[in-house]
UniProtKB/TrEMBL annotation:
Signal peptide as annotated in the record: none
GO molecular function: hydrolase activity
Lineage of source species: Bacteria, Bacillati, Actinomycetota, Actinomycetes, Mycobacteriales
Keyword Hydrolase: yes
Keyword Hydrolase: yes
Name this polypeptide is given: Serine hydrolase domain-containing protein
The organism of origin for this protein: Prescottella soli
């Protein structure tokens, strides 16, 4: 039996119970969950195996790649620059990135980038892991591309390109990488570009073995539709998610600072990031409130599900399924089943970080149950 360690306020015993059960029934291999309520740490739990190959156990400080949970942190960096007056949401990107005006993109704004409306959901040619570690090269590639649709007329999940688009705003206005900016402004344990020691301690991503239980939330019809599209190499969902192609256990990827999907962190640090957002520490309440206003909602051209986006943050929708009580929540899920979220109305912040990678496009019941339990404790 997996031993769950850490601390949990007695009022949140339901979260501990759900977390323990997730190991008992095989839903988790190794994982951590953290919750803050009204700014106070009420859940900080971890357990299981960090490395299936060696049997190394998950420790209190075990970090893990969190896939697209990274996007919310990268977006917050751009929002902080907006708040400080370095850039505005509605001015053309080409005003500060002149090369970006190529191929009909002269009217694209930072708001378009933050809301997946820029029409650049995928690269138009193969990208190597080495190239992906060079933000200047990635910006050059995106600047010269023609959009898939007229910017501002549709939206579709920029699964990997989102990060490099937003990172260029940070690089040009703050004079540093988004990884360095994030660590300086939001927390030293939010690694977008992890050093060797952090990579060595990181949990290794595994996939379910044949016969292990599934944890999908999404209905079968939607799963089938998405699966069929993903099996087609010419589809937007495949092109957006499969290039650059790499293993998320590859040290070169984890060190490379992928600003859409490569952040390495702990559940504790990710939940703390949302706590600071909810309580006006890292962004003002006014900036966050505006960022949470839904700009686009409907059928996502890439994910093929109902989605709702504020400025970089997802809001509750089919692509970010949350309990009904969490209607005020915001955040971002990750492909491995990870999730980070905050709720200003309830003073709640939560993060779940697993290393057993399940199907993001079908939703993940593990995080959903933990979120349900956390809300039950405060209602």
């Amino acid at each position: 039996m997996t031993s769950v360690q850490g601390q949990c306020d007695s009022a949140f015993d339901g979260v501990r119970q759900v977390f323990e059960e997730s190991f008992e029934d095989g839903q988790n291999l190794g994982a951590a969950v953290a919750v803050f309520a009204d700014g106070r740490s009420v859940v900080d739990l971890w357990g299981g195996v960090a490395d299936r190959g060696t049997g190394r156990e998950w420790a209190w400080d075990t970090p893990c790649v969190v896939f697209s949970c990274t996007k919310a942190v990268t977006a917050a960096a751009a929002l902080l620059l907006v708040e400080r007056g370095y850039v505005t949401l509605d001015e053309p990107v080409a005003e500060w990135w002149p090369e970006f005006a190529e191929n009909g993109k002269s009217g694209v704004t930072l708001e378009h980038l933050l809301t997946h409306q820029a029409g650049l959901p995928a690269f138009d040619g193969p990208v190597s892991v080495a190239q992906a570690a060079d933000p200047v090269e990635m910006a050059r590639r995106l600047a010269r591309q023609a959009p898939e649709w007229e910017p501002g007329t549709a939206f579709g999940y920029h699964a990997l390109t989102f990060g490099w688009l937003i990172a260029e705003a940070v690089r040009r206005h703050a004079g540093t990488t988004v990884g360095r900016f994030v660590r300086d402004e939001f927390g030293s344990d939010l690694w977008i570009g992890a050093p060797p020691g952090t990579i060595e301690r990181a949990a290794r991503i595994s996939v379910p073995r044949r016969g292990e239980p599934k944890s999908a939330l999404t209905d079968i019809a939607t799963q089938t539709r998405i699966g069929a599209a993903y099996a087609e190499p010419a589809s937007l969902i495949f092109r957006a998610t499969a290039n650059p192609a790499a293993s998320y256990n590859d040290p070169a990827l984890l060190a490379g600072g992928w600003p859409s999907a490569g952040m390495v962190t702990t559940a504790r640090a990710l939940a703390r990031f949302y706590r600071d957002l909810v309580h006006g520490v890292s962004l003002s309440h006014e900036t966050l409130s505006d960022a949470l206003r839904v700009r686009v909602r409907g059928l996502d051209q890439v994910l093929l599900t109902d989605s709702a986006y504020g400025l970089g943050f997802m809001r509750p929708a089919q692509s970010f399924e949350l309990p009904e009580v969490a209607s005020a929540a915001f955040g971002h899920p990750g492909a491995g089943g990870a999730v980070g979220l905050g709720d200003p109305d309830h003073g709640l912040a939560l993060a779940f970080v697993p290393n057993l990678k399940r199907d993001y496009f079908a939703g993940d019941r593990r995080a959903h149950r933990l979120i349900e339990a956390a809300y039950a404790a405060i209602m």
